[in-house]
Amino acid sequence: MIEETQGESLLPIHRYGDPLRILLSQPSITASELRHIVASRGIAVSRSSKEEIIPILTGGLLTSREISALQQIAEEREQSPKLRTRVLTPAEHVSLPPILTSKFDPQLFEPSGFLNYHLEDIKPFRSSPGGEWEMTYTIERQDLSKDWVHANRSFEGSITVTKRGDDFVLSCFHSSPETEKINSRIFGEVRNRFKEKSDKTEEKSFLFGNFTDEQRISLFLAFTGLTETQATFERLEALEIAPANVTDPLPPQLEWLSDGVSEARLAGDDLSDFSFLTDSNLAPFVSPFASDSEFTAKGFSNSRYCARIEFSGYPAAGITSELQISIRRLTTKGGTEARLRRSFLKVLENKKIEIVKSLQKMQNQ
């Protein structure tokens, strides 16, 4: 949470308005964090969206310390690896090496819509002793705007391909909007190559619209039962929800959602006690889209981390929002932090796939 400081001079709007607006608009800074700052000034807002809150804050309400804290949050969260998953299932046998070792068009690493960056390094797909194939690359974003967000920084992206039974699981790690776009284009090329070998290849992604509200609640709650060596659940820190798109009147327990609430972040020590998580009659009225959960990794330098599991971009992106996992916070007494983050993300990804398969099996029964 942003630290509040009494007696600190406020920044003049004529100097900081535009770069501050860019900073506050970053997806890595949540509306709830901005709403907390506004509420601390005694200002009430009728809606919880950034569109209403940002103009208030750019009017000179933020202190220099609060802005520095927001900058640090934006940079750390943007550079932290985020994991999305796609699954390809060909109808017949497909040999993986020819698909992945063929040269990839360099234009795949030049996505439209992004300027002022260049490709620093690329390592083509290579296999590991465990049978996993991985491609990694690094880009550098060049600072031409001189604002508080688009500084000269390097970002890494990667895609790993693992065969699990009849499925080929593609784990896509990105750390910026640019690498997210590049990953999407690389995946599209890999998918096309699979379909050249097997035109009935099925593609599975994990989108908001693929789940019912009840299934999304089950999905988030399922992570609270993990007891893996690298992912032992400790507590559910926060859950973000939006009102479901229903015409029926809200039950009395959820009437607070009818007062112009577009989304809400619920924080506490034991969120599993919230009625809509346990009462199936309330589930159709609530659309959960993100959770922050704390896990411990026993035997891994006694690491403790907060994992964010979210349908990225919701509610703005609607039913096309894609399920994404990232490590928001990591505390460790040893080991390489980047390696640990990727290792923990892979464990959570495996559990995600298991959970989704279980939900789909229950639905088909």
Low-confidence regions: 1-15
Structural class call reads alpha+beta
Number of helices: 9
Strand content: 25-35%
- Which value, in Å, is the CA radius of gyration? 22 Å
Number of strands: 11
Largest sheet: 11 strands, antiparallel
State the distance separating the first and last CA atoms: 44 Å
SSE topology string: HHHHEHEEEEHEHEEHEEEH
Mean pLDDT: 83
Oligomerization state of this entry? single chain
Shape: globular
Helix content: 25-40%
Description:
This protein is α+β, with helices and mostly antiparallel strands and 365 residues long. Helix content is 32%, strand content 27%. It has helices spanning 13-24, 31-40, 50-57, 64-79, 96-101, 177-197, 213-222, 275-278, 337-364; strands spanning 82-89, 117-127, 133-141, 153-164, 167-174, 202-205, 232-243, 264-267, 286-297, 303-312, 322-331. Strands 1, 2, 3, 4, 5, 6, 7, 8, 9, 10 and 11 form an eleven-stranded antiparallel beta sheet that branches. Strand 4 (153-164) and strand 5 (167-174) form a beta hairpin. Helix 2 packs across helix 3 (50-57) and helix 7 (213-222) crosses helix 9.
